[in-house]
Amino acid sequence: MEGNEKNLEIECGRLRLRSLSIEEMERLQSGKSDRLQKSVLTEVIKSALIYKTEQMRKTSKEAHPWLNYWLIQEKESGRGVGLIGSKHLPDENGYVELGYAIAKECRNRGFMTEALDGFLDWLFGWDFCSGATLSIRESNAPSLRVAEKCGFLYEKKQDAFRVYRYDFL
């Protein structure tokens, strides 16, 4: 992987996104970190943290920003309001699936739209990344709105999910 592997922070408007290390991910899993609003740590996110940490241990360090979570922090207060990241390395077509979560008390303030736009900018900086996908529960109207605001296009329905795609063309 060549390119901007050293760029492990993303500045965007009111937010800063920072790539988390294995140790930081483990602290979040165990609840020993005060860097993130607790409402972000749902059972789904805790399971993802475990899975992501296991994947990071199996890969080279330069792949970690593709496998971990990135902490979404308010610049002004420094508090962690959410997490964003890719679920794997880009597939054979150059697409990567993304996932994200925002603290309940921080919703409806445009944070996730801002964070997703910033993360897409980071992804665009990699020559081998052609775009991104999202799989969002049909019942998750706020997340569906975020995807559409950021330019993702509805592609198909898959079980209880809507699959969206974003192309870097």
Written overview of the protein:
This protein has 169 residues and is of the alpha+beta class. The protein has a single domain (9-167), classed as Aminopeptidase (3-Layer(aba) Sandwich), CATH 3.40.630.30. The protein has helices spanning 22-30, 43-57, 64-67, 111-124, 141-149; strands spanning 9-12, 15-19, 70-74, 80-86, 95-102, 131-137, 153-158, 161-167. An eight-stranded mixed beta sheet has the order 1-2-3-4-5-6-8-7.
Q: What is the topology?
A:
Elements: E1 9-12, E2 15-19, H1 22-30, H2 43-57, H3 64-67, E3 70-74, E4 80-86, E5 95-102, H4 111-124, E6 131-137, H5 141-149, E7 153-158, E8 161-167
Parallel strand pairs: 5-6
Antiparallel strand pairs: 1-2, 2-3, 3-4, 4-5, 6-8, 7-8
Instruction: Look at the structure and name the CATH superfamily.
Output: Gcn5-related N-acetyltransferase (GNAT)
The name of the CATH architecture is 3-Layer(aba) Sandwich
Globally, the shape reads globular
List the domain count as a whole number. Answer: 1
Short description:
With 169 residues, this protein is α+β, with helices and mostly antiparallel strands. It has helices at 22-30, 43-57, 64-67, 111-124, 141-149; strands spanning 9-12, 15-19, 70-74, 80-86, 95-102, 131-137, 153-158, 161-167. It has one domain: Aminopeptidase (3-Layer(aba) Sandwich).
Features:
169 residues; alpha+beta; Aminopeptidase; eight-stranded mixed beta sheet
